[in-house]
Amino acid sequence: MFKNKDDLQQNILKFISKTKQTDYETNQLFNELAMSVFHYQFQYNQPYRQYAKLKRCTPMTITRWQELPLIPIKAYKHLNLTTIDPSEAMDVFLSSGTTDPARKSHHYLSSLGIWEQSMVTGFRKNVLPNRDKITIFALFPNQSENPNSSLSRYVSTAISHFGTANSRDFFENNKINYDQLMKALTQASLDDEPILLLGASFSFVHLLNYLHQINQRFELPSQSIVFDTGGFKGKSKTVSMAELYDDLRDTFGVTRQQIVNMYGMTEISSQCYDRNIFDEYHQNPIHYEKQSPHLVKIQISDPETLHPLPNGERGLLAYYDLANWDSCVAILTEDMAIQNKYGFILLGRAKSSEAKGCSIAVDELLNIEETK
Q1: The pLDDT of residue 240
Q2: SS (H, E, C) 106-156
Q3: What is the pTM of this model?
Q4: pLDDT of the residue at 21
Q5: CA distance 72 to 363
Q6: What is the mean pLDDT of residues 255-282?
C-alpha cells in the first residue's frame, strides 16, 4: 500500500517503465497498484467515495481490479471527480461539448508526469517502434492554441518527444492552413522523407475534401504513417472508418498497414492503439484490434446489468486506467466493443436504449449528490 501521494506516483511511474516481466507478474502488480489507487481515491475523491459506498465497495471489501466501482463517463460533466481542490490543479482537460455544449467534462490533473510518461511509452511502442524521430505534420491545434484539450496536449507532446526539426502543426485560426501543408507535403515527397500525418478523423475528412476539389494526390515516402486520432462525434459529416481509410490510401499512396487509429478521450489518461504497426515491427501476423498498454485493463460489460461478458460478446467498454490515479481509476465508457485474444474492436457509441446500466449508474451518482 502507498505511504503518501508521492510514493503512489513513483510506484505507477516504475510500473509504466517495466516492460520485461511475465504476464503473471504484470497482472499481479497491476492489481496491487489498482487497489492502492482505489484506496487513495476513496480517501480524497468525495463523489467517488460516496458512489463506491453505495455499491458496497470499500478498500476493506474488494481485492481485485475487476471489482472496482465503475464511474459512468457522463459523471465528469456533472461532478468534480478529483482527489484535489480543482483550484490547485496543474491542468484541466475539457471535452469539446459537442453533444452537450452547456456541460463539458472536466478532468483535473494534479501533475502531468504520469500522463506524459504514459503517452510517450504508448506512442513509442505502437506508433514509432522502429525509430526515435519522424517528421510530424499535425492537422489539429497545438497546446498553446487549445490549452484545455487533452488531444492538443497529445499533439504537442508527440512533436516535442518524437518530431524532427521540420515537424509542425498546420491548424491556424480554427482551420487547416492548406497552402502551407501542400508545400510541406510536396517537399517531403521530393526529399523522400517519411512523415507522420497526424489528425482527428474530421481533420482528415476536411483535408480529403479539399484535395479532391483541387484534384491533388500525393505519394508519401515509404515508411510514412497516417495517424487517425478518432473523433467523429458531433461533426456535421459522418464517414465510416472503412470509407475514410480507403480514401486515405488512394489519396496518399499508403497501405492499410501504414494507417493507425487511437482510442483516447478527455476523461482517461492512457491511450489504446491499433496493433498493426506493432505487429509488423515484431514480425507477427497483422491485426487491427486495439491493444491496451500494461497500465490499462479493459472489460466488456453487459449494457443492462454491467456484468462482465466473455470474449466475442458485444457490450459496453469499461476502462481501468492506473494513469487516472488522481481522478477515477475505473470508468464506464459509452462505447460499444467486442474483445478477443488480440485486443478489442470498437463498434461505435451506444444508443441511449442500449446503455440502461450506464443510465442507472448516472442517476444513482447524481442522486447521491442531491441528497447530501
Answers
A1: 85
A2: EEEECCCHHHHHHHHHHHHHHCCCCCCCEEEEECCCCCCCCCCCHHHHHHH
A3: 0.92
A4: 76
A5: 10
A6: 96
Instruction: Decide if 346 contacts 328 (C-beta within 8 A).
Output: no
DSSP state of 340: E
- Beta carbons within 8 Å of 357's beta carbon, 6+ residues apart: 301, 302, 303, 304, 305, 306, 316, 332
* DSSP states of 196-264: EEEE-HHHHHHHHHHHHHTT----PPTT-EEEE----TT-S----HHHHHHHHHHHHT--GGGEEEEE-
Q: Which of 2-6, 31-35, 219-223 has the lowest mean pLDDT?
A: 2-6
Going by C-beta distance under 8 Å and a sequence separation of 6 or more, which residues neighbour residue 258? 223, 224, 225, 226
Q: What is the helix (H) or strand (E) element at residue 322, kind and residue range? A: none
Sequence-distant (6+) residues with CB within 8 A of 172 are: 145
Q: Cα–Cα–Cα angle for 124, 128, 130, nearest 5°? A: 110
Q: What pLDDT is stored for residue 235 in this prediction?
A: 45
Give percent above pLDDT 90 in the chain: 80
pLDDT over threshold 60, residue 353: no
Q: What is the DSSP letter of 163?
A: B
Q: Please provide the distance, in angstroms rounded to a whole number, between the alpha carbons at the two ends of the chain.
A: 30
Q: 10 Å Cβ neighbour count for 307?
A: 10
CA-to-CA distance for 43 and 253, rounded, in angstroms? 53
Domains, the chain: 5-79+294-371 (2.30.38.10), 114-291 (3.40.50.980)
Per the CB < 8 A criterion, the answer to whether 319 and 68 are in contact is no
3-state DSSP call for residue 171?
Answer: strand
pLDDT surpasses 50 at 234: no
Interval 198-214: pLDDT, tens: 999 999 999 999 999 99
| pLDDT, the chain, mean | 91
